[in-house]
Amino acid sequence: MKKLLICTGGGDCPGLNAVIRGIFKSAKKTKEWEIYGSIEAFNGVMAEPTQIIKLTKSKVGGIHVKGGTILKTTNKGNPLQFPVQDENGNIVFEDRTDSLAKKIKSLGFDAVINIGGDGSQKISKALFDLGVPIIGVPKTIDNDLSATDTTFGFQTAVQIATDSFDKLVTTAESHHRVMIMEVMGRDAGWIALHTAIAGGAEVCLIPEIPYDIEKVKEKIDSRYEKGRGFVNIVIAEGAKAKNGQVFGTEREMVSEHLRLGGVAFQLSAELKAAGCKPEIRETVLGHIQRGGTPVGYDRVLATMFGVKAFELVRDGKFGQMVSFKNNDYCSVSLEEAVKDYNVVDKEGFLVQGAKAMGMSFGD
Ligand code: F6P
């Protein structure tokens, strides 16, 4: 029997379990593979003793409807920049990819499938360059990977945000209020843009289009001129004012990212300072968008990503990342996979179409 190792890395995302099940079921059908999972991304491989579990039918059965990942995950175990304490107690970063690659080989794995976003696929590439037979599966609710048209988890996040938006509309209307709803989206405003179009927001603020607070206020005022209006705004966590800064709360020592969240309150304060009269309320959706059951679309995408990933393993086509392009399940090289981000094009049809519907982006 050959040995296949699965890892889930980075932030969790609805659909991860469906990928694991897709790999497991299609691999088991060949009767040639044993499937293992590393706990908390590659941390399970690096740990002494290792934390690797053998996947069985009973562990994997029915998990495609379950959110999260049965293998657990972390965004703190990047082997390219592994945090360790030096003798003075300071955190320093070490490149541990070489020892990780050696450990994977010494454990006798014939193939690895790494499910994760941009950061995880950079790790896949580094391991592949060191001779590890590895395949990547793209994962991000932000939908910010350019090598695939879409990623599982994104539609689920948009649906959760749209359902929440719809609830905020009825209360905004009843109280003649301005409602600000903050959604995830660090560098890319896809969740915000899709939710704003699906819900019919008056204002949508995204990282790709820095906003002018006066323009946002103008849009709000125009909705109140004709009587007692109401306004619903969607803002991505990474949105910022022109000449402004991204609103973050803290920078963790073990991660290169500033923790975002709370820009809805910042926008509210800016609007009040600009003289906005109506009452304003803020809602930060946060991790609700990443939890729970994946919608049908994401289950299909995730399951097929799993099947495709195993197909690449079976055919020995390593160094590739599974992708969904032009309605087709295909693959791209890991090099291609980590080259560019997929951000919203402000001249693109989605933004222009939303503008044609009267939506303001504050520009
Ligand atoms: O990258 C996905 C994402 O959901 C971002 O939109 C968000 O900023 C980040 O992860 C949150 O990460 P954490 O779960 O570590 O707070």
TrEMBL record:
Domain Phosphofructokinase stretches: 4-313
Site (described: Important for substrate specificity): 119
EC number: 2.7.1.11
Keyword S-adenosyl-L-methionine: no
Residues bound to ATP: 11, 76-77, 117-120
Location of this chain's protein in the cell: Cytoplasm
SUPFAM superfamilies per record: Phosphofructokinase (SSF53784)
Domain of life: Bacteria
Similarity remark: Belongs to the phosphofructokinase type A (PFKA) family. Mixed-substrate PFK group III subfamily.
Description of how the protein assembles with itself and partners: Homodimer or homotetramer.
Protein name: ATP-dependent 6-phosphofructokinase
Species whose genome carries this gene: Belliella marina
